[in-house]
Design a protein that fits this description.
Blueprint: H1 2-19, E1 40-41, E2 44-46, E3 49-53, E4 61-66, E5 71-73, E6 76-79, E7 82-83, E8 89-97, E9 108-118, E10 124-134, E11 145-154, E12 161-170, E13 176-184, E14 189-194, E15 197-204, E16 211-221, E17 233-239, E18 254-255
Parallel strand pairs: 1-4, 8-18
Antiparallel strand pairs: 2-3, 3-17, 4-16, 5-6, 7-16, 8-13, 8-17, 9-10, 9-16, 10-11, 11-12, 13-14, 14-15
Organism: Acinetobacter guillouiae NIPH 991
Protein name: DUF4882 domain-containing protein
Signal peptide: 1-21
């Protein structure tokens, strides 16, 4: 009887583990950036969530993070990329704390995610999500507090990098922004959700992604000693756990691990 009970418990444990499989891809690594030697590791990097405090500084502080085992060469993923399912739809989300009010004087606050999608021949496609709040920004619409989303794709034949999509809007007046991205591996289409607004498929990549990675950055400057934002904790989070998704995705969407 004891053996039977043990067997039942073990089988239930296996079923439970399979039913709640987690998809994790940490952002606890740091790669020095030749183009930005001042960049440093985020003060707090725990799993897929990054955080820092706004400090009193005149010089810009830049934080950067990537996967703990990521290795790159000539913008290609050499090691540490996550292998994507090669069929169906996969999704993930980005949560970002922002200052929704337009900053003045020399204050500036910027955050970004760079999503790298690489095909079997190491042709790289990218999705860039950038939040920028600064009075010094120069934009054709004179936006000083904006979100910019770009989709770029490498032509596998010519190796030319082509811009496929551009989204520029004022940052909505909420302190946490949410982006949902879904990739249809059957058609190589990219879908986009911005703060619950599903824009549908907005671009088609020029080849099917095989590997995935993500890089995140934050930068700020000009916050004086009496600034109301001083010591405010800001965070950026990469969400792959389907149970934490805030958006509704096309039927059958899985996480980037295929769960």
């Amino acid at each position: 009887m004891k053996k039977l009970k043990l067997a039942v418990l073990l089988s239930l444990s296996i079923i439970s583990t399979q039913g709640f499989a987690l998809c994790r891809y940490d952002l606890e690594g740091f790669l020095p950036e030749p183009a930005n030697p001042a960049a440093q590791k985020f003060p707090t990097a725990s799993g897929q969530k990054l955080s820092y405090k706004i400090l009193n500084t005149t010089n810009q502080l830049v934080y950067s993070a990537n996967h703990s085992s990521l290795k790159m060469m000539n913008d290609a993923i050499i090691e540490g990329g996550l292998t994507l399912p090669q069929s169906g739809i996969v999704g993930f989300e980005l949560n970002t704390d922002v200052i929704p009010t337009q900053l003045t004087n020399t204050r500036s606050d910027a955050k970004s995610f760079g999503i790298l999608l690489q095909d079997k021949n190491k042709n790289v496609h990218s999705i860039l999500v950038i939040y920028n709040n600064s009075s010094s920004l120069t934009d054709q619409d004179n936006l000083k507090n904006m979100v910019l989303i770009l989709v770029m794709s490498t032509d596998p034949d010519t190796k030319e990098v082509k811009g496929l999509y551009s989204y520029i809007k004022p940052i909505e007046r909420v302190s946490q922004q949410n982006i949902g991205i879904y990739l249809n591996q059957n058609s190589t289409q990219i879908g986009l959700i911005v703060n619950k607004n599903n824009l549908g498929y907005i671009a088609t990549l020029l080849s099917k992604p095989k590997d995935f990675s993500i890089v995140s950055e934050a930068a700020f400057a000009g916050f004086e000693a009496n600034s109301p934002y001083l010591n405010k904790t800001m965070s950026l989070e990469f969400v792959t756990d389907k149970s934490k998704f805030k958006n509704t995705y096309p039927t059958g969407t899985k996480d980037i691990c295929g769960n």
